[in-house]
């Protein structure tokens, strides 16, 4: 059995997980991508495979709070273009988890995150100013949506690390803060809920792991409230820099032994 329970975690371990859960709430309502740090904490305290099953319900709780906060700002044309590619990525990620061990999962996701961060920095330095979200209607935009969608589905399935990939996509598409947060909120709520049957089928979620989740979810709420307070005090340029920095930090942490 790959699941973890509340009784397997030490006091210091639980404190670290509680902080990571608070950071999940903050990332969902302020700096999307920052929860890669949470991913790394969960993977450090728990076995990497088991950590994905424990983290998923915590992420869903954060997604619900983000949807309640930013539901009016979602850009649905972008979401509909992403979902088919994401579904293919989730299936590929499920097959990958059937045989991949913890080390392979961590290294693969860390490398992908660093690569995507580098690509995003390069694209934003060379892109013309004033790109808008409707750029996804172009042929190049549709191709970019498919490639990011597959990567996002794959990474979110194998390590709950789809946040940075989709954050980088939304930045490259020209989204401003509120549109970014509203679109990503609905995206991850739908995707994460759809992952639950796959994770349960792989033995990563059961009644025992949900007990640990019940103890951690309460820490998501203050994190989300802190994020809602902070997001209006962060300018757009700093917001984008924080998203990319969080992606790099999470990628490096996953590559470290």
Report the uncertain regions: 128-132
The largest sheet, given as strand count, sense and whether it forms a barrel, is: none
Strand content: under 5%
Mean of residue pLDDT?
A: 80
User: H/E series, N to C?
Assistant: HHHHHHHHHHH
How does the overall form come out from the CA principal axes? globular
Helix amount, in percent?
over 70%
Count the E strands.
0
Distance between the termini: 24 Å
Radius of gyration: 17 Å
Q: Number of DSSP helices?
A: 11
Helix and strand composition category = mainly alpha
Structure description:
The chain is mainly alpha-helical. The chain has eleven helices and no strands. Helix 2 packs antiparallel against helix 3, helix 3 runs antiparallel to helix 8 and helix 5 runs parallel beside helix 7.
Draw up the topology in text:
Elements: H1 11-29, H2 35-45, H3 48-70, H4 76-99, H5 102-126, H6 139-159, H7 162-172, H8 177-201, H9 207-217, H10 220-231, H11 236-255
Short description:
The protein is mainly alpha-helical.
Features:
11 helices; mainly alpha; 257 residues
């Amino acid at each position: 059995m790959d699941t973890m329970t509340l009784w397997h975690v030490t006091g210091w371990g639980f404190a670290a997980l509680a902080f990571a859960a608070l950071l999940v709430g903050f990332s969902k309502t302020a700096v999307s991508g920052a929860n890669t740090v949470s991913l790394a904490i969960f993977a450090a305290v728990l076995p990497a495979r088991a950590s994905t099953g424990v983290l998923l319900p915590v992420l869903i709780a954060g997604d619900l709070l983000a949807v309640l906060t930013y539901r009016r700002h979602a850009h649905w044309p972008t979401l509909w273009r992403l979902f088919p590619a994401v579904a293919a990525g989730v299936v590929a990620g499920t097959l990958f988890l059937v045989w991949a061990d913890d080390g392979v999962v961590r290294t693969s996701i860390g490398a992908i995150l660093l690569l995507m961060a580098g690509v995003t920095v390069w694209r934003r330095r060379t892109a013309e100013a004033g790109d808008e979200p409707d750029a996804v209607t172009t042929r190049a935009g549709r191709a970019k949506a498919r490639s990011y969608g597959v990567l996002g589905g794959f990474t979110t399935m194998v390590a709950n690390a789809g946040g940075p990939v989709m954050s980088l996509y939304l930045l490259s598409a020209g989204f401003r803060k509120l549109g970014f947060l509203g679109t990503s909120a609905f995206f991850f709520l739908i995707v994460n809920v759809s992952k639950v049957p796959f994770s349960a089928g792989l033995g990563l979620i059961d009644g025992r792991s949900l007990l640990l989740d019940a103890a951690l979810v309460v820490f998501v709420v203050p994190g989300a409230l802190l994020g809602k307070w902070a997001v209006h005090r962060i300018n757009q340029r700093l917001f984008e820099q924080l998203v990319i920095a969080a992606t790099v930090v999470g990628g490096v942490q996953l590559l470290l032994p």
